[in-house]
Every structure is written in structure tokens, then in C-alpha cells.
TrEMBL record:
Name by which UniProt lists this protein: ATP-dependent helicase DinG
Record's compositionally biased regions (Low complexity): 681-695
Entry keyword ATP-binding: yes
Keyword Repeat found: no
SMART domains: DEXDc, HELICc2
Gene Ontology MF annotations: 5'-3' DNA helicase activity; ATP binding; hydrolase activity, acting on acid anhydrides, in phosphorus-containing anhydrides; nucleic acid binding
Organism, scientific name: Flexivirga caeni
Reaction(s) catalysed by this chain's protein: ATP + H2O = ADP + phosphate + H(+)
Amino acid sequence: MPADLDALMDAAVGGVGGTDRPGQQKMARAVDQAARSGTHLLVQAGTGTGKSLAYLVPAIRHAVETRQPAIVATATLALQAQIVDRDLPRIADAVAPLIGRRPTFGLVKGRRNYLCLHKIEGGYPDEEDALLDVGEVDRAAGRIGEEVVRLREWAQETDTGERDELVPGVSERAWRQVSVSAQECLGSKCPMVQQCFVERSRAAAKEVDVVVTNHSFMAIDSFEGRQMLPEHDLLIVDEAHELVDRVTSTITDEVTGGMISTAARRCGRMADASAMREAGELLQELLGGMAEGRLLGLPDNLALALTRVRDAARSVQSELKPASPTDNDASRQVARAAIDEIFDNCDRILEGRELDVVWVSQDPRRGAVLRVAPMSVAMLLRDKVFGDRTVIMTSATLELGGSFDSVAGTLGLRGEGGPQWTGLDVGSPFDYPRQAIAYVASQLPPPGRDGTSPAALDEIETLVRAAGGRTLGLFSSTRAARSAAEEMRQRFGDDIPVLCQGDDQIRTLVGQFAADPRTCLFGTLTLWQGVDVPGPACQLVIIDRIPFPRPDDPLASARSQEIARRGGNGFMAVSATHAALRLAQGAGRLVRSSADRGVVAFLDTRMVTARYAGFLQKSLPPFWPTTDRALVLKALTRLDELARQQPTPQAEVEQAADEAQQVDDDEPYHEPADATPELPDTPVAPRAVDAAPPASDGWSAEDDEELRDGADLGLDLAELAEHLDRPADDIRKRLVQLGIG
């Protein structure tokens, strides 16, 4: 019997050089209790809680007691590496004397993340877009050739074959020359199966206490019953706010003309794929002439083209079937995998499953793409993920609008027949009201659809100058980020450098941002969630507008309409929930340590005027709220003056760059330095929701903007009426008056 939890936690905290944190202890006890009772748990652990230790220690204890491994799934490879390379080794060393042995752990990834030794030895055909074949690679002078040479040399040295262990890394194109997908793998028929890096890693995982993997791998293992993960009764999902999107992406399928022609080429002389190739050309021609957006039904000509592709693929499948298992060599397996994908995807789209959404998008590189994805994965998660094990979901942002209900609904935990679960917010060790201000620029006009307004650009300039740079700008679109960056570069000249996402790799940009406090970094989604720059380099976060889903997002609009059809409020369940999660993540970029101080500035007046403003505000960290511009500028100026005396340590610069794709909230908690400033501690109430003077017909400017937003989001008349609490006839009349109905 292992030591009690409190003793294990004390040892682990000491082992990682941390200090006692009440939220961490509370979370650890809740995780331990959930594992024992079998009740699912959603636990929100704010930045600085040290949540990885709070779930890893109970997981180790449970694994030792039950003699079954605990599974930990994360959204990002970076967090996996942090857990396996930093957290678990230190925890294992610290608790070993109490347990009686050193706990063991392992990392399991998808097959594409490992070298394939059979492919290295020439057992597979070259990728169709490779620059070189195996025989020529040693004579190559090009970048891809040099990378492949390096990979072949590394294959003779590595013990794991894991791509992430190769530093510096190589391009995706080069990596494809030495790896295979699960569908392309020969499995037990491979002549090198005994030496296979993947098989060795999975065999080792069956013997360890904690197995670390990613959301997608865990989902595929659950949905398809492949049993790639060892048998277990405890699953911990970190970065759980990402799970629904990651799972949806995993089970999204697509068809393109390029996929079909590539599959046909891979057949070579093994099968006649000419009919499939011709059908694919027809399909691509049809898709190229279609407008982007959701298809509420398949047009007859598109359905006919898909049917021709599917039927031709079925014929090729028959030809490719080996006469015996020994005839199934690597070339045939690769061709079969490509043809199976074409057949399955076409068949799924033609089947027209009730919850599937089909849409057309235009890819700059690949042309027209026909995609299909589930409208909701809630029931799939309920049945396959929560069905036969205890699940712990944790993140810094799970409680939206003051409740776990929104996130729980997307996970399939709510509604009739849902499993038993509890929600817990353990808070954060940070003193948010003292450390940060949430400022809404209420004097600005509501954001329009024509880009950032001149007044908003003036506000950005004023705020950035007061902060002395030190600004992370989070924008709702790439166009808005680039436009604002270009404008600020003209206004600031050489005084304040402005970087923009897309100028270079994210890691490089974040490193430059952290290294030079006067630098600003503008960007979109990756920066909303993946930047961790503590200290004086980031003292102002600007959010240009509420990040609702794009009006033309086929999945968001389909979900909203379906919820409305069932009598719910689609806008709040989908659009507002999406926005609240993104806002919480974005605002969370500001305070990454107990010494951080600063301002999150919202340039969208709907944060205090819209009817859903309260829901959004409750989703944010409890910053000190104000609309007082003069006070905010004074605070930023004071922070800038003090920060000039506190240069960012080089170690923090390097760490910020290395973890640019990850939110790291597990650094040891440090008490604030005496010199850090106290921000004002008397809240200024936000402007009342109905502060704008009503028009003569009862419509305010904010009402009109909400109506435009709702129409852009695809809400129908009934849902607009419900959202705005007005008769449908009034809504219809106003739409006509505004020229949008």
C-alpha cells in the first residue's frame, strides 16, 4: 500500500523545488477521490496552480494500488515533453522512498512520429513528391536531400526513433521519407517488426505506471478500439478545453482531386486506376466551380461524381487485394491505404449521416476541398471516452460564464443518460485584482465589418506608447493583425518594433518578443493560446474584438441552428461559449507569474454593452475592471518606468521561445518582489448595459450591432428574436431597415 496522498504530495513538491499551494493540494485530493469513487471530474486550475503535479501524484498512487497504468492525454507535444522530461522524473525520484520503488512512465505517440526502419532500409516506395530516391540520397546537395541523409545517419544512433528527439528537426517533407502512417504499416507482417520503434514503445507502455499521450491518439484508441494504449481505468485529460476541437479534427475527412490522383499513382502496375483518376478529375472540376460553404444537400452532379469515384475505388480495392498475406508487400500496403481512404471518405459523404456536416473550402495550395465532420462529438465522447473508466478533465479555462455547464455539454456529460460528474474550481495563487486591470475602451465605436476602425488604431497607438511597447496584440483575423501591425510600424518607426505572426516561425517571434521589452507582437489564434512570456516583456495585452466563430464557419453555424431547432439558444451555446473560451485564454496571456502586472485592453465595447457581456466577463480571470482610460494610461506608464529597471533574464527568454506552443502553468510559485507596483484596488463599475441612448424606435446602436452579428453568424429569425428578446416581426422589420434582411 503506497503512502498517503499528503505525504506523497509533500515529497513531490519538495522534489520539484516548489512551495505549498492550497489550490494544488485541493486539486490533488479531488483527483484522488474521483479515481477512488469512479466519478468523473472537471477541475479548473488557474495559472500558477501547478496542476500537472496535482494530477500526476494521485495518478501514480492509483496506478501502484491498482497495478494498472494511468493515462495522461495532452493537446500539445510540448506539454507531453514537459511532463515526461521534467515533471515525472523529478516526481518519481521524490516519491520513490515512500512507495518502495521508483514509479515508471512512458510516452506513446502516433506511428507517424517514429522512424520506420523498414522504410529506411528501402522496403517502401518513395513518396510521390520526393526529390530523391534512396540510391541517390547520399549524393544530394539540396536541403531535403541533406535532411534525409541526416535522418538515415540518426536512425543508426537513436534508441527511440522519436521525431521530437531529433534536434534540430527536419521538414515534414523529409520526415515523410522515413515514416509511415498506421494504415501503411505492415504490422506483424513487417520483416523488421521485432526492431520496430513503435512496437517497442507500446510494449514498454504496458509495463509502466503512467502513460503520456495526446488527445488525438487517445481518441482514435477509444473510438476505433485498436487497444494501442494499455488497459486502464483512469484517464486524465490536460488542456481539456482543446479536446472537442482536437477530436473533431481527428474524425474530419476530406476528398480532393489531388488525393485521388496520388492514390491512383501509388497503384502503379498493381491495379488499373484509370477510371478512378478520370472520375477524380471530374470531381475536382465540379468542386472548383462551387462556392465555399456548407452543403445542405449534395447537388445531383456532385453526388454522381462522388459515386463514380467511390465505385471506381471499390474496383481498385478488389484488384489490390493480395492473393495471400505473404503477397502484401509495402508497395501494395501503401496503395491499399490510399485507395481505402478515398473509398471510405466518399462513402461517408454519400451516406449523409444525420449529424455530419459537409462543406466546400478553397485551399490556396490544394485547390477545392470537400470536407465532412460531425456536427457534435458529445455523444461519441460520452460513449467512448467516459463510458468505461474514470476521467479527469483539467484546464485553466473550463468554467465559462461562472459555470461548468457549457463545457460539460460539449463533452456529452449533460442531458438525459449522462454520466455522473462533478466540477471544481481550485482558483489560482495569483492575486488577479491587484495584479491586472481589465479595461474596456468604451469610448470607441462598436467594431464594424470593415476592419479595425481609425479610432481603434489610435487607441492601440496610445496604449502601446504608454506601455513602452511590451504589448501582445491578439486579433480575430490574420487580416486585422497584419493591418494593425503595418499601421503601427508606420506610426512608431524604429522607436517600438512591431512583429507580426507570419513574419517568421512562432518560436523565433516569441523569443524576439521576450528578449526586447520595447517590442510588440501581433497575431491570431496561435498567440491567443500558445504564448507564455512572464515578466516585464508583456505588460499589455490588446484584444481587438470578441472572437466569435467566423460567420461562414460551417460547423459553428450548423451547431447553432441545430440547438435552436431543439428549442435552445444556439447563439449562447455555440458562439458565446466559443468566444468566452478564447477570451479567457487570451486574457490569460498577461499574468503568468505572481510578479506580473499589467492591463488587458478590450477594444470591443460589447464587452460591457451587449446582453451576453456578463457571461463573457464571468469567464475571464477576476481582473480589476474599468472603463477609465486616463487611469489605465497612468498605470501603464508607471509599470513601464518600473520595468525599465527589471530586464527580462535570458533564461526566461529562452524558455518562452521553447514553449511558444504551450501554456506552462507549472513553474514554482514565487512571492512578488517588493518593488512590483500595487495596481488600484477600488473597482470602477463597468458601464451599464443599456447606457447607449435608444433610437426613436427602441433600437440602440448596440442592439443593431448585435443584430448584425447574429445575422452574420447565420442565426434564423426565431433565434434572433429570442436572443434580442423582441417579437419576430420587429426583428424582420429592423433587418430590412438595416439592409441586411
